[in-house]
Amino acid sequence: MSKTVNLSEFTNFHFIGIGGISMSALAKFLLANGKMVSGSDSVKSDMTLELEKLGAKIFYKHSASNLKKAQIVVYSSAISKDNPELKKAIKKNLTVIKRSEFLSHVLCKYKYRIAICGSHGKTTATAMVSEVFILAGLDPTVFLGGESVRFSNFKLGKGEFVITEACEYKKNFLDLKVTDTIVLNIDNDHLDSYGDMASMKNAFNEFISNTVAVINNDDKESKVLHTSCIMTFAINSDATYTAKKLVRNKKGYSFTVYKNRKPITRINLSVIGRHNVYNALACFAICDKYRINHNIIKSALENFSGVKRRNEFLGYISGIEVFADYAHHPKEITASLSAFNINDGETLVVFQPHTYSRTQILLQDFVSVFKTVENLVIYKTYSAREKFNSSGDATVLFEELINAGVKNCTYAHTDMQLKNQILEFKGQIKRVLVLGAGDVYERVKNLIDGNR
């Protein structure tokens, strides 16, 4: 459906699903370069409002009439083939291009193209790398699949570097042509797209071919990848870059970076979770490859404050602290629960399953992760791109948890039910940890004291 395009030939761009975190970043890039941008989305959000302030025309309903001025139409893999705008664009013979292919055209404008991929941690690691390059004065352009505290989901730079996340969903990252890759990990996510782990690993191998690759040597699926030039990082295994003498503190972890078994520097992270040590090591490796001063890397990492929806403090509900984390896969959830030490009995966990297919495929993994949680609320499924599937509904997960013997586990289908169930724990808990990649984040934010 896509075509080879020269972006400079077009002045009017239209995005189907413009409010998406990756789509909106591309829209911002075009607006910053003086292009006319329009787009559609089903809901008004902080991101669509920001785009409107920047000059974009936003339609809050998908309709063929939205394409009146469009010369080129960008869509994401989440858009169905029967979308009226997509059908109209094809009928009018407009240039129609997938988001990942459009991103690839943008990346090719830069000499050095760094892509961070993996099943977990992409956004945080991408933000970390970006912070170092910014502090080093290299002025990179950045496309982020989340919102950095410093620059939201996009930064336009004047340097030769572009830094981006690379999403493996439906093999979208294979559309990107980059010079450097970081592989954080490979896990059993998006199996609805791949079918099995072998197919997924083949896609990752194809993606890193002909790049300088930085690979997690502690991750059993990643460490078998191969390309002509590889650097590795690890905590437990031998690698090019390793973290030794780990000490957990209130803010995060302190550790010493070793390169080729020789100590380089001590780093004191200010973001919680052992998984962030891996992110920091990967960051150190790629920055060292570009000869960024070690003191600059250290300073940027130690001052890195994270990204939104990654262990983010939201406020209070009736005086109870509320935190949010994007974790929606069992391995991510395990890392988040560990970081918050939730087995102290003072934490209520709220989890919103993300898509029916993921819940169905990983149902027993979710049960295994949550069955030791003392206080738990399961919130209704965020369907995202999928149609209802009773086999993967949140109620099925809730029933499986009850059958597994989880006692303080409830189910909420509405915002008011969720708030009431949180309030029932008042006096027993000190904090609420909200997990999920769906709209539970915005819904809980609306429940925060002072927001209503």
Summarize the model shown.
The protein is of the alpha/beta class and 452 residues long. The protein has helices at 21-32, 46-54, 84-91, 99-107, 122-135, 191-194, 197-208, 275-289, 294-302, 330-340, 356-361, 363-370, 394-403, 415-423, 440-447; strands spanning 12-16, 36-40, 57-59, 72-75, 95-98, 112-117, 141-148, 152-155, 161-165, 180-183, 212-216, 229-234, 241-248, 253-259, 262-268, 312-317, 320-325, 347-351, 375-379, 408-412, 431-435.
Give an account of the 3D structure.
The longest helix has 15 residues, at 275-289. β16 (312-317) and β17 (320-325) form a beta hairpin. α1 (21-32) packs parallel to α2 and α8 packs antiparallel against α9 (294-302). The protein is built from 15 helices and 21 strands. It is globular, with a radius of gyration of 22 Å. It is 32% helix and 25% strand. It is an alpha/beta fold and 452 residues long. The mean pLDDT is 91.
Secondary-structure map:
Blueprint: E1 12-16, H1 21-32, E2 36-40, H2 46-54, E3 57-59, E4 72-75, H3 84-91, E5 95-98, H4 99-107, E6 112-117, H5 122-135, E7 141-148, E8 152-155, E9 161-165, E10 180-183, H6 191-194, H7 197-208, E11 212-216, E12 229-234, E13 241-248, E14 253-259, E15 262-268, H8 275-289, H9 294-302, E16 312-317, E17 320-325, H10 330-340, E18 347-351, H11 356-361, H12 363-370, E19 375-379, H13 394-403, E20 408-412, H14 415-423, E21 431-435, H15 440-447
Parallel strand pairs: 1-2, 1-4, 2-3, 4-5, 6-9, 6-10, 7-9, 10-11, 11-12, 12-13, 17-21, 18-19, 18-21, 19-20
Antiparallel strand pairs: 7-8, 13-14, 14-15, 16-17
Helix pairs in contact: 1-2, 5-8, 5-9, 8-9
